[in-house]
From TrEMBL:
HAMAP family: PsiMP_glycosidase. The gene is psuG. Binds 1 Mn(2+) ion per subunit. This is Pseudouridine-5'-phosphate glycosidase. The active site is at E25 (proton donor), K161 (nucleophile). The lineage of its organism: Bacteria, Pseudomonadati, Pseudomonadota, Alphaproteobacteria, Rhodobacterales.
């Protein structure tokens, strides 16, 4: 194991025993919601995985090492640190954060890198980054998409956030050769909404098939991971017809105020929170928990297939 990586006792024990582990990102804790709600949600997600017999591996950079799995004190410390004191880490920032000894929270891309280094093949998150609207002039495209094309981790998300250009995001994922697998439906979900109006390239209804697909990709020597898009539970969704006007209003306000670059997404998410009366955050929490449950099933199937030594096309 790389000496820059420190596994928590829980994760180390699970890895040693051949038990399933699911990676979790940390930017949702540091930049996604205020303290102490962020801590409570992080604890809920970890408890959801443990209840499914899976070890949670929340990943962050702390004290000069990549922490794969955080104990209670570390989780509390990370959640209570002001967001402007925590680096938001992607592929470009990870080494610099370690070199300077700063605290860093991992995005989807950085979490994939760290999970792969630790031998973890399944990762649950909320939503991935994607192609921003106006990217044809701004070139604002998330590194998450390129990481999916190069790092062999199965990422379970509720799609890309609806503030993004979803057709272009899907097109780029196809160009990069990333399998986009909708779980249990034919449409691509759109984060807060179960439907986006876009057909999903692939559909699977069985976590064992998703696990087998990852295994077969390795056998074929194909680079990269898989994106599993898991629709938000019906009881928690904000329907597409309701969300589209909200997103359009938030985007128009951002443009009118001259908000650009890295400031855009935080502004939009805050404005959508206000325009939906807080329902967008409730939906976000529900979908993260739902993704953790599915990731647990996929990781458990991967572990079983490893023991059987078969693709497990069940």
């Amino acid at each position: 194991m790389n000496d820059l990586i420190a596994l928590s006792p829980e994760v180390a024990q699970a890895r040693e025993a051949g038990q399933p582990v699911v990676a979790l990102e940390s930017t949702i804790i540091t930049h996604g919601m205020p303290y102490p709600q962020n801590l409570e949600v992080a604890q809920q997600v970890e408890a959801t995985l443990r209840d499914a017999g899976v070890a949670p591996a929340t990943i962050a950079v702390m004290d000069g090492r990549i922490r794969v799995g955080l104990d209670a004190d570390m989780l509390e410390a990370l959640a209570s640190t002001p967001s402007d004191k925590v680096m938001k880490l992607s592929r470009a920032d990870l080494a610099a954060c370690l070199a300077t000894g700063r605290t860093g929270a991992t995005t989807v891309a950085a979490t994939m890198i760290c999970a792969d280094l630790a031998g973890i093949r399944t990762f649950a998150t909320g939503g991935i980054g994607g192609v921003h609207r106006g990217a044809e002039t701004s070139f604002d495209i998330s590194a998450d998409l390129y990481e999916l094309a190069r790092t062999p981790v199965t990422v379970v998300a509720a799609g890309a956030k609806a503030i993004l250009d979803l057709p272009k995001t899907l097109e780029l994922l196809e160009t990069l050769g990333v399998p986009v697998i909708a779980f249990g439906q034919d449409q691509l979900p759109a984060f807060w909404s179960r439907e986006s109006g876009l057909a999903a390239p692939l559909r699977m209804d069985d976590p064992a098939q998703i696990a087998a697909s990852a295994r077969i990709r390795r056998q074929l020597g194909l680079e990269g991971g898989q994106l599993v898009v898991n629709p938000i539970p019906e009881t928690a969704e904000i329907a597409r017809a309701e969300m589209i006007p909200v997103v359009e209003q938030a985007l128009a306000e951002a443009e009118a105020r001259g908000i650009a670059a890295k400031a855009v997404t935080p502004f939009l998410l805050q404005r959508i929170f206000e325009l939906t009366g807080g329902r967008s955050l409730d939906a976000n929490i529900a979908l993260v928990l739902n993704n953790a449950r599915l990731a647990a099933r996929i990781a458990t199937a991967m572990t079983a297939q490893d023991r059987d030594g078969a693709p497990g096309r069940g």
